[in-house]
Specification:
2 copies of one chain form a homodimer.
Chain A lengths: L11 H9 L5 H19 L2 E4 L1 H12 L11 E5 L26 H8 L3 E6 L27 H8 L5 E6 L5 H7 L2 E4 L19 E6 L2 H12 L15 E4 L10 H16 L3 E4 L9 H16 L1 H6 L6 H11 L3 H23 L3 E5 L15 H8 L4 E8 L5 E7 L5 H16 L1
Parallel strand pairs in A: 2-3, 2-4, 7-8, 7-9
Antiparallel strand pairs in A: 1-3, 4-6, 5-6, 5-10, 9-11, 10-11
Helix pairs in contact in A: 2-3, 7-14, 9-11, 9-12, 9-13
Chain lengths: 429, 429
């Protein structure tokens, strides 16, 4: 651990090691996070629910036990579309105001089993879609932290908590992480169990994490999914083969985002990576609209209770997406699935010749709070079920963070962590 | 409609047509079902919850409206692992006794939107696994109705309701339907939206139906998923190409089940079908153990809340399966997924040359109530995500029903209905 840092700024990996070594208590760590929240929450508004005494009492219980896992004593923020049995879960919607589930989602119960502390619920946009909620960008209150994992990204960026769960259906982990300058990790589809997640689009919804280090993203997925530990000691010996993938949506990135990705590619080549262009043409260009058709078809159905009982409590923008979803025919849906399966085979082939792809994380820096930003650079990767991780790199015209997205092969999350860490270190110079 | 039948024995399709034509009221239909339940529930014990007045009031509301869909006014039973906002949902476990979800699952809300009547909750085994619950076989109270959709199969077989939702992770729709002598339909994976389903194994759990006619199975899936109407008028002109698939597990079928399948194949060939053997050897033989590894890995995680908080309320048999699931490594899980994907490609090839496969539905007739029967003949088809439908055919040594399973190509549910109906008529002679 970096002893000079305030506790709330320490990474989860370092904090857990310090707790296991008896040099830090979970209570002190949680208290430091709560202090930070106390000082900053009025400006950032990252939390949908927090009960300091409940968090501290969990921490004290953990301090009375030997470590259960590498997560022991670590506070974790839970996006408010994931059920918690001891805290409200409102799915970012007034329809569910005050709702308290009767049990924990699988990933929450797993964190508790592993000795983690559930710090509180982080703000989600409405049902994890695009309609903004209250959270502000930690560096500029006129800007969005991105969505839909708004509170998770802002809380981690502002050092209120070292790890928070997010979810991604379009670009809801990668985009806010890039805007806020943290590590956003969307696992291979299905790696974190989804029992107790409020479904929007079940063939796409993916639980992932927001952290400040690559090692922390690896730590939590390894503990939850039973993955082998990523061999970070091999990082210095890697010379990854990187595919620079501007994607068919390159024109939707602004000048700063384009320059950032191109700069990253040059720096990585100079550091010894093999970097070549990967041009995903023709069919891949239809994946964005395919993602929209497939997800809309599904959320028209998933939100039937809400759209039939409480239409007046659904935002106009979501209502119009739901209505569009009701018009997608099963035949159109199946055509989208078939296209996706063809593209999955093709990207699997591409990833046999590359250790990772490098792509934009978002079209630019965080826009103003009227929107949560454009998910365009997440859609195809979510549809393709590949593990993705965004690294902070460069900044936009206002000085706000930009990110570059590292994409690994399907179920190749462990290798992706090592390659992402190599890339992070090379970009840090 | 068949006017001479008591209302509770009419199919959903016929009843809905009669309601639309003003010849039957939903109230009279629901009342007839409730009368049947009143007469038979003590023996069959198919229902986890039923509130006659709540069902009748829904029916009266529907009778005051023009038909909303082809399901208008039709009573539907809901397996008790699917959330209902106005009825308890206990997932077949004492851990969740008295639990009342705060909103309807997607498929329940869709049935309401379509004008259907939620008649009540049907008994599930513990978390839709194998440990028996209270339901008895309608024809023999010493025998199991099968599981895990025990109540749904028994209620439909006993003419307490024309349609009930079931779920299948292993063989939990096909097996009880075969035992009870009704139509069990497991759709292509994901066809019925799963928001609000209690997850056991999210990559396998599939919502489907129990009905007494093939047309009724088609009706409800068409309305829920937006599928085109199955062209049953084409049935007489079909001469389907049928692959007789004894499966790698043939030796686990008893003499009666083997004779029944072989007899069905002969009858279909005599009726004009092209019937040839499909021998799924080598890798397919490992699919049963793969299904067990993949599902156990997932339900160890999905049931974390229950296994960590209430271990004493979990049956010994489920506890041992959960413990085994905790020992499945992610590497083993991924190997199972990879094998499954290879077999999916191979079965897709087989199904390009065949309109349907014909396979055993269960190892024999219903065993005694200490078990819910062996799921062996469902495991591989669930893993392969193919649409499956069991048709009653023949009987066992005790005179209880046997079934044959019709399997269609992935996302080919509409064609499967037409082929299954051709097969049903041919088998009826």
């Amino acid at each position: 651990m970096t002893a000079s840092l305030p506790f709330n700024q320490i990474s989860a990996s370092d904090a857990a090691a310090a707790i296991a070594a008896g040099k830090l208590t979970s209570e002190a760590l949680v208290a430091a996070c709560l202090d930070r929240i106390g000082a900053r929450e009025r400006a950032v508004q990252a939390w949908a629910f927090i009960d300091p005494e409940l968090a501290l009492s969990q921490a004290r219980s953990r301090d009375r036990e030997p470590p259960r896992s590498r997560l022991h004593g670590i506070p974790v923020g839970i996006k408010d579309v994931i059920d918690t049995g001891d805290m409200p879960t409102e799915y970012g919607s007034p329809i569910h105001r005050g709702h308290r589930p009767h049990c924990d989602a699988a990933c929450v119960a797993q964190v508790r089993e592993l000795g983690g502390v559930i710090l509180g619920k982080t703000v989600s946009t409405e049902f994890a879609t695009r309609h903004p909620n209250k959270t502000r960008h930690p560096l500029d209150p006129t800007r969005t932290p991105g969505g839909s994992s708004s509170g998770s990204a802002a809380a981690v960026a502002d050092c209120m908590v070292p790890i928070a769960f997010g979810t991604q259906t379009s670009s809801s982990i990668i985009r806010p992480a890039a805007f806020c300058g943290v590590i956003g990790y969307k696992p291979s589809f299905g790696l974190i169990n989804r029992a107790g997640l409020k479904f929007l689009s079940e063939s796409l919804d993916t639980i992932g994490t927001l952290t400040r280090t690559v090692a922390d993203a690896a730590l939590i997925i390894e503990e939850l999914a039973g993955l082998p530990a990523a061999p970070f000691s091999e990082v210095p010996r890697r010379k990854p083969r990187i595919g620079l993938c501007r994607t068919p949506y390159w024109n939707q990135a602004d000048a700063a985002a384009q320059a950032s990705l191109d700069s990253a590619a040059r720096v990585l080549a100079q550091a010894g990576a093999r970097v070549n262009d990967v041009d995903l043409a023709d069919e891949f260009g239809a994946l964005a609209e395919t993602q929209i058709a497939v997800s809309s078809y599904e959320f028209y159905r998933a939100l039937t209770h809400e759209r039939t009982r409480f239409p007046e409590l659904i935002s106009a923008s979501l209502a119009s997406r739901i209505a569009a979803g009701g018009k997608v025919t099963r035949t159109q849906y199946e055509a989208g699935v078939a296209l996706t399966e063809r593209c999955r085979k093709r990207i699997d082939d591409v990833l046999r010749d590359h250790d990772a792809l490098l792509a934009p994380s978002a079209p630019g820096e965080a826009p103003t709070i009227e929107s949560t930003g454009d998910p365009i650079f997440g859609l195809m990767w979510t549809l393709l079920q590949l593990p993705c991780l965004t690294l902070p790199y460069g900044s936009g015209p206002l000085g706000l963070p930009l990110g570059v997205q590292v994409i690994g092969s399907r179920a190749g999350d462990t290798a992706m962590f090592v390659n992402a860490e190599w890339i992070r270190r090379a970009l840090a110079g």
